Amino acid sequence: MHVILQAGSQSHALRLQLYASSPHLQVFPRSRGFCTTAEELGTLESGHKGPCLVLLSDCKVSPEDFNHHILSTFLRGYVVRMYWVEYTTSSRSELISHLNSLIQHYSEDCYQAAPVVYNGDERSFSYSQENCNGGHLLTESEASRTSSIGQSEGSVVTDHWQSLRRLEKESKKLKVRLQTYPRNFAESLADELKDIDCQLHDFSQSLYAVEVNGMYRYGLSSGSQMYLASCDREDLAKDYIARAALKLEEVAQVYGFALTKDMLAMDLGASPGAWTQFLSKHIHRVVAVDPAELREQALQSNVTHVRKLAQDATEELEAASEGKGYDMLVCDVNRHPVEAANLVSPLLPHLKAGGLLVLTLKFHGRGRDKEQKVDEIKAFQS
Ligand SMILES: C[S@@+](CC[C@H](N)C(=O)[O-])C[C@H]1O[C@@H](n2cnc3c(N)ncnc32)[C@H](O)[C@@H]1O
């Protein structure tokens, strides 16, 4: 099976593609069979405009596990939609006729499907029938919709599913949610497909169809496996001083660096304190270095604020580690990349072997090609 991830922006799509293409990164581990190759789809000349789609080929991970992987990592802020696409064609008539035959096939199968059971805490459904095991991720509104009917959740969902099946059988129409790219492709598809009842909420099957540059990628699968949990990035960062905090989560996960409660970090250029705040939640202690103030939310009991420039804070940094060294050195000073690197260099001996160094390189402007910037840095260094 192949899966297409739709990101919220083209730069996120590029990052997803790079992450998925790098076997040594931990975002889509090859060992777990996430994909064999990854490619961005669509015209990408403009650099940041495009369909924001990334095709992961030969995915061996189940939709349920994939959904769970997204929701339990920084990817929840990247992936807005997913399309499970088993088939490809460049012919529209072939697309329609194949989809119609798939619908026919699923109708016969699914009218006999067994009821589902709701696992409340897991926010997932699981079918009692082997050929239909699922892991539907409920959005908050769906969860409250299903549980607000006033019965125990298991019986509510079972009843709900059974009544869905009954309706499908009576009407001889499969209740399908169309997930298409572009979105308005759904309208013409709905007109051309037979025996389906298009639904946003009460559906038993998901029909995926993505059209990019005259190529159709499509598939039909159990609605219970659909990824419906796209998260608002602002919402994800709502507990933090700034969204930048999530960057550290991303870096740590990309490199498979586990943050643990026995770790010590130095945060250079820490104000207003989003990184410090994030680290203070996940590790033992943070030494935050910045002449500027830290916001109150960052001033936790396990945070020491050294109100100095990093180049003047060596003594305090040494004292705070009591000679044991740092597990992490993070630096987000708003300086030219080479200046920032020069600031960090003398402090590297304080980083433990295997420790994590995070240094932001502040490049201005949009676009993917940073060759010119690299030349600028070289010129600065010489
Ligand atoms: C982009 S902000 C850092 C944001 C921070 N990472 C956060 O999560 O809130 C850059 C900070 O670097 C600090 N800075 C610049 N040069 C510095 C230096 N040489 N030593 C320490 N801090 C420095 C500035 O005072 C500024 O607060």
Describe this structure in words.
The chain is of the alpha/beta class and 382 residues long. It has 12 helices and 16 strands. The chain has a 5-stranded mixed β-sheet. The protein has a 5-stranded parallel β-sheet with strand order 14-13-12-15-16, with helices on both faces. Helix 8 (245-254) packs across helix 9. The longest helix is centred in the first third of the chain and has 19 residues, at 92-110. 33% of the residues are buried. The structure holds S-adenosylmethionine. S-adenosylmethionine binds next to helix 9.
Compile the SSE list and pairings.
Blueprint (H helix, E strand, L loop, with lengths): L1 E6 L2 H12 L16 E4 L11 E4 L6 H9 L7 E7 L1 E3 L2 H19 L5 E4 L4 E4 L12 H8 L5 H19 L2 E8 L3 H8 L3 E3 L6 E8 L2 E8 L10 H4 L8 H10 L9 E5 L5 H9 L2 E5 L13 E4 L7 H8 L4 E6 L5 H8 L6 E9 L11 H11 L1
Parallel strand pairs: 8-9, 8-10, 12-13, 12-15, 13-14, 15-16
Antiparallel strand pairs: 1-3, 1-4, 2-3, 5-11, 6-7, 10-11
Helix pairs in contact: 8-9
S-adenosylmethionine binds next to helix 9.
Pfam families: FtsJ
Protein name: Ribosomal RNA methyltransferase FtsJ domain-containing protein
Short description:
By secondary structure, the chain is of the alpha/beta class.
Task: Report, as a whole number of angstroms, the end-to-end distance.
Answer: 51 Å
Gyration radius over CA: 25 Å
**Uncertain spans:** 114-152
Which structural class should the secondary elements be placed in? alpha/beta
Number of beta-strand segments: 16
Mass-distribution shape: elongated
Mind describing the biggest β-sheet?
5 strands, mixed
Summed over residues and divided by their number, the pLDDT gives a mean of 83
Neighbour order of strands in the largest sheet: 5-11-10-8-9
* Small molecules bound in the structure, each named once: S-adenosylmethionine
Helix content: 25-40%
Give, in order, the helices and strands. EHEEHEEHEEHHEHEEEHHEHEEHEHEH
Q: How much β-strand is present in the residues?
A: 15-25%
Q: What is the count of helical runs?
A: 12
Number of domains: 2
Protein name: Ribosomal RNA methyltransferase FtsJ domain-containing protein
Domain Ribosomal RNA methyltransferase FtsJ: 240-334
Pfam families: FtsJ (PF01728)
